[in-house]
Amino acid sequence: MMLMNRILGREGREVDQAIFEPGIQPLQGTSPLLGRKSKLTIQLKVGADAQDDLRRGLLIRKIIDDPANMPKDRAPIDPASIAGKNAGPTGCVLMVDANQVWDVPQAIEYMKILEPIKPWFIEEPTAPDDVVGHAAIRKALKPYGIGVATGEHAHNRVSPCLW
């Protein structure tokens, strides 16, 4: 399984090389979740097949939530530092990225299907300039604990995501 290679490495030790199945990638660098250098956020591309996305998400959750997969020298996570972020006991979070493939009702219904994987947020569920649509998605997903992020593809001089 490719994701396991990333966490434990081929010989059962932690490695820094990323080997992932398509559509899964780690976000490296400073994590806004924990405010320190981290590889604790996993991004899952979604939008083509809800059942396959759910299957892949549950597989990822099973791996990243297992304390046995944490590095041996890492201090335990303070639960207060991850409250409200849908992080598991290891402090890892899963975000999903739709790359603007849905309209508002589709985004809401699709994310309700993915609720069991406890995504921290959905990135760009619809067109980035649809502010009202993003607000409606955020309001509908709030009871599920799923946030909404946008701005990556916003075309203005003060873009919130400067990659």
Could you explain the architecture of this structure?
This protein has 163 residues and is an alpha/beta fold. It has a single domain, classed as Alpha-Beta Barrel (TIM Barrel), CATH 3.20.20. Helix content is 26%, strand content 18%. The protein has 4 helices and 5 strands; from the N terminus they run αββαβαβαβ. A 5-stranded mixed beta sheet has the order 1-2-3-4-5, covered by helices on one side. Helix 3 runs parallel beside helix 4. The longest helix has 15 residues. The chain is globular and about 45 Å long. The two termini are 30 Å apart. The N terminus is likely disordered.
Write a brief structural summary.
The protein is α/β, with parallel strands linked by helices. The chain has one domain (29-149): Alpha-Beta Barrel (TIM Barrel). 26% of the residues lie in helices and 18% in strands.
Task: Based on the model shown, name its key terms.
single chain, TIM Barrel, disordered N terminus, five-stranded mixed sheet, globular, alpha/beta, 5 strands, 163 residues
Q: Kindly provide the radius of gyration, computed on alpha-carbon positions and rounded to a whole number of angstroms.
A: 16 Å
DSSP summary, beta strand count: 5
Query: Strand percentage, roughly?
Result: 15-25%
Going by helix content, strand content and strand pairing, the class is alpha/beta
> Quick one: overall form?
globular
Residue windows where pLDDT falls under 50 for at least 5 positions:
1-22, 27-39
Strands of the widest sheet, in order across it, are 1-2-3-4-5
Order of helices and strands: HEEHEHEHE
Helix residue percentage: 25-40%
**Fourth-tier CATH superfamily name:** Enolase-like C-terminal domain
Count of the domains = 1
CATH fold name: TIM Barrel
